[in-house]
């Protein structure tokens, strides 16, 4: 389900400085890959939003994250796969904030899970080494389900020389 093609890039001039240019997708993609923390937004069964911080990895054109099967985000995604992942610096006048909209798809293929597990170790270190078994990650704390979010749309919000870029996949 990963996205390998280049998206259409558009600058939204309504929310950009007069001389701003669109942020390139390679720069946006690099920001997604390098970020340490992300915010995941899901929808509760009653329609209220649920937002939580987590770690994730960018691999093969998608973001991957994991969560316990009994956690609120897993329960929400079981009912409604629509979600948003956001990351950024949290600074007012500098940096690039990024938002990815898409559907979370459970990853059960053990070859892909092993690749994602290795990406976690490469990015976050040995503390985040998972064993792959029975279509899930396993560690001292128990089982973790893995989800892939291939972008349907993504946004880049550059601060300083303000620009708002939309990428459509």
UniProtKB/TrEMBL annotation:
Region annotation Disordered: where it falls in the sequence: 1-26
GO MF term set: coenzyme F420 binding; oxidoreductase activity, acting on the CH-CH group of donors
Biased composition, class Basic and acidic residues, residue ranges: 1-13
Methyltransferase keyword on record: no
A cellular-component GO term for this protein: cytosol
Keywords from the named record: Oxidoreductase
Domain Pyridoxamine 5'-phosphate oxidase N-terminal: 26-153
The keyword Oxidoreductase is annotated on this UniProt entry: yes
Transmembrane segments: none
InterPro entries: F420H2_bilvrd_red/Heme_oxyg (IPR052019), Pyridox_Oxase_N (IPR011576), Split_barrel_FMN-bd (IPR012349)
Polar residues biased stretches: 14-24
Protein name: Pyridoxamine 5'-phosphate oxidase family protein
Organism: Streptomyces botrytidirepellens
Lineage of producing organism: Bacteria, Bacillati, Actinomycetota, Actinomycetes, Kitasatosporales
